[in-house]
Amino acid sequence: MPSTIISQDQNEHEVFNAIHSFLSHFGIGKLLKTCNAMKQKGVPIMDVFKYKLCNAFTDRSMYMQMQTGVFNEDFSKNTVYRFMNDPKVNWLRFTSMLSRKAAESLEPLTDESRINAFVIDDTLFSRTGYKGTELASSLFDHVSGTHQKGFRLITLGWTDGNTFLPVNGSLLASSNPKYVVCEKEFKMPDGRSLAASRRKLAQTKGTEVMLELLKEADKAGHKADFVLFDSWFSSPAQLLDVKNLGFYCIAMVKKNDTKYEYDGRDLNIKEIFKASPKRRGRSKYLLSVNVNVGNEEQKIPAKIVYVRNRNNSKDWVAFICTNPELSEEEIIRIYGKDGILKCSSRPASHTLSCLLNATVFHSMHLRRMWRSYLRAI
Predict the structure, then answer these.
(1) Of residues 247 and 282, which shows the higher confidence score?
(2) How many CB atoms lie within 10 A of CB 236?
(3) Most CB contacts within 10 A, which of 25, 212, 318, 367?
């Protein structure tokens, strides 16, 4: 237990014991070393890491500890700042490897036939101190219908249907200098460094970032049968790219003019619905058709399932699955993992960004993300 943080009650003792057990059980020290988080001088890196973690769970701040004179650690505040802003630490790899270890501890507790899936979602990550935050941009929030200052946050999570684990994530900024609202000038990192790669990723299209997050999770050893995402990522090009990575997709389909090859014709999602006979009665779905998606060079088979909209009985929503052998009921059931877990993935996605802050982003509390992992032990 850090000497600065003196527990006041039994609950805090339980928190400290849980953190100590967590760090030991998952071998956090070895993971940090693997991700280039090593001490620069005489202070062990685990001491600094444990101090920051305990502060987050006990609502303490190093600033107030310094102001009140209760900071009694064997390192200075500069040591903490160097650790949090070290551009050599690969936090993306760290969270991917840590979540894999947590998933390994959960897999023996579930049936082998249970389907595991990746869940991808994006949300707005607003910043009040955006003028001093590198690459902070003006972005349109589709939920509130207003422009906000901050970043777009894409999060990748893993789920077995009952448990959700955040895997990795990335903050995205505008690639157009016109919409970058940061007023402070930052020194550009070396183009060969990890910080430069992270900065480049932050100004990449969200569809390409999604693929990079999946590659990083696969590299860390994560196993999943499907990738679930909403209509923002469900273009034929994305479905083809994810299939080429070795994952099946289940996604909601946009009601736009995107063409699918159906019965020898190129039709959009609405035209297919009008041209096909519907199921009668209280069926779980209205229509199911087999199509081909992709481009002129490569096309893959897929199945589109039309389901009645719960909020409007006269309307429908459609899901596409790149595994046409899967039954319609199973497609609807598996995609339910995405809808159920959206409320879990968004709070976790906010805290994932703090592990991607080196050089580009400022540090934030780790509390919510670590709580997700602590529940796994």
Answers:
(1) 247
(2) 20
(3) 318
